[in-house]
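Subject: Predicted fold for polynucleotide 5'-hydroxyl-kinase, 355 residues

User T.R. writes:
Posting the sequence so we have a shared reference for the thread.
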Amino acid sequence: MNKATYTEDVPPDRFELMEGILRLEKPSKVMLIGPTDSGKSTLLAFLANKLIERGLGVAVVDGDVGQKGILPPATVSLAFPEGPFASVGELEAYAHYFIGTTSPGSYIGEMAVGVKRLTDVALENADVVLIDTTGFVTGRGVEMKRLKAELVRPDMIVFLERNGELSYLRRVLSPYGETVTLSVSTRAREHSRSERREVRREKWRTYFADASLVEVDLSAIVPTGTELFRGRPLIQEEKDLLSAVFRWLVVAGWKGERYVVVKAEAEGGIKGHTHYPVHAVDFESLSNLLVGFIDGEGLCLGAGILKWINFGEMKAQVLTPLSPKEIDKATELRFGRIRVLETGDELGHLRRDEL
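User M.O. replies:
I've generated the C-alpha cells; pasting them so everyone works from the same file.
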C-alpha cells in the first residue's frame, strides 16, 4: 500500500524543475522538503522516471521513516531504480541506515547521518541522487533539516508549500544549496493519522511476511542503542537489595557508571525509575521491540522484532526476514524505540532514555 504513484499529470512547474535538474553538473543531489501530504513522494517518482527516460542513472534516498516507500519503516533506505516504476514502494533496497523509530524527533542526529551516509554511497553509482525527507518541518524538524542540508550540501533543495509556511526553513537552508519553491499540487490529498497508520501496518506486515525466529548470540553480536549489558553483571546480593528497596523483581542488571536493571514490577512496586544512580528498564518494554542488524560499516542489513532475551546465556530470540548468511555479517544488534508486531500493529513508542 502506497499513498503516491507515478503520474505525468502534474503542474507545469514540475517539468521546469526537471529541466533545471538536467542542467546541474553531474553527479548532483536534489533534496525534497515539504510538510506531510505535500506530494514529495509523488514528485520524486515523477522526477526519477523522467530522469531514467533521459538515460541518467538515478538513486533514491528514502528518508521518510514514518511513511516509507522502501521497506522497512524506521530506517533510511537507498535504492537504484533499474527502470521505470510506478511507486517508490516497488523499489528494492540497496542499503539501509537504522533509526529504530517512526517518530524521529529525538533522533535528528541519526537521521542526518543516515541520509549523509547513503547519499555518499549513492554518488558512487548515480548521476542524480533524489533525497526524500520526512514531513517534520517545524520545531526540532527545522534543526533536522538543517543538519541534513549542512552534511549533504545538496545542489538543489526543492520546497513544496501551500501558503509560504516554509519561508523560515528556506532561509535556514539557503546557504547549503540552490533553492526552488513549488506550490503543493491541488491533487495532493491529506491523509488522516489512522490512514497513515494503516499504510505503515501494511508495510510492516509485508516486510515481516516471510520472517523466521532466529537465535542471536549477544556475546558475539554486540547489543547497542541501549544502556543494557554495559558494566559488570550484578551479583545476587545487589539484585536482592534493589528488589527490596524498590519492590521489583530484578530480572537482570549491570553496574557501570550507574546501576542499570531490567525489572518486572511486583504489586506495590515503584514504577518507572530512571534517575541516577539507578536506571530501570521494564521487561515488557523489550518485548516486540524493533531491532536492527548492523554491519561493520554501520549500515543496517535489515530489521527484526525482539521476542525474548535469556540474560543468563546472553541469547536473544529475534523474528527477522534476514537469512543466516546475512545475519552472519552483523556486528551489532541495535535496539530501536518502537514496539511492533509482525501483523503490523504498532504497540507504542519508547522514549530515547527509556532503554
